Amino acid sequence: MTHRRRTLITRYPLFPKSILLARWCLLLLGVLLLGGTSWSQKLRPPQDTPPEWSRPYPPFRIAGNLYYVGTYDLACYLITTTKGNILINTGLPGSVPIIQKNIKTLGFQWKDLKILLTTQAHFDHVGAMAAIKKLTGAQLMADAKDAAVLADGGSSDYAFGGKGALFTPVMADKRLQDGDTIILGETRLTMLHHPGHTQGSCSYLLTTRDEERTYRVLIANMPTIVTEKKFSAVPAYPEIAQDYAYTLGALKKLSFDLWVASHASQFGLQKKHPPFSKYNPLAFADKKGYEAMVDGLSRAYQKKLEQDQ
């Protein structure tokens, strides 16, 4: 797979407070009325979501300017900069109050969100994306391969689509390619195209610094297999087997100091940082845990391949 690197720099104009206030009121009204739109009438969200996906979890500082603001299991990450903040993942549609409260608890402002990102275009990670985009006016940047699924609310998802929108459709303002760099303030993130779980699943690498040292952090999207069909029986995604193989190989080659993932359960969040624990970045320097996770996914992939033989 060819790697390209581009740099995306976003600048934001300054508005008078009166204009901003009016804008906020309009955005809030839009979200409150969202339930009456034709899209909401068509939504068919999953009804059997695990309770830990919507259970609150105390927010905390992971390392440097990287913070956890998600739920008990759906990981959402806040990256703060001098030019505004970045939010990665939004959880379920009902997660907006949880994320908003978590950001405020950490001492940051909801209105300072400037860029929205996601690790995958699935209901449990982008369910609140459209609402948060409306509320904040932040730009949504997404892997180009997931842009269509975001735009139709998951209707065209190869595994879960075909029955209408699963979440409120949302348009990506920027379509990212493998190796693209996103810059906001002094922070640079590199997007890594890691397809398979979705066609545009992706991970992020960033370097952050605290009072003691610098850390290279991987926010990984682990390539779990979601389709129950044989790979050869997924016509909507003919490259699925090759994409999983590519991603598993790419994950094994990455170099980092700390790592987290799209689900808290994938990196053992509750054991590494119990509620209200002290700041301890090195709790996330679990290379053995990372290798074990990737090895386990590789075995699951090989077992899946055997179904096609």
Overview features:
309 residues; 6-stranded mixed sheet; 20% strand; 7-stranded mixed sheet
Structural write-up:
The chain has nine helices and 13 strands. Helix 1 (17-32) runs antiparallel to helix 5 and helix 7 (240-253) packs antiparallel against helix 9 (287-307). The strands form two sheets. It has a seven-stranded mixed beta sheet, with helices on one face. Strands 1-9-10-11-12-13 form a six-stranded mixed beta sheet, with no helix packed on it. 28% of the residues lie in helices and 20% in strands. The chain has 309 residues and is α/β, with parallel strands linked by helices. A hairpin with a 2-residue loop joins strand 9 and strand 10 (187-193). Residues 1-41 have low confidence and may be disordered.
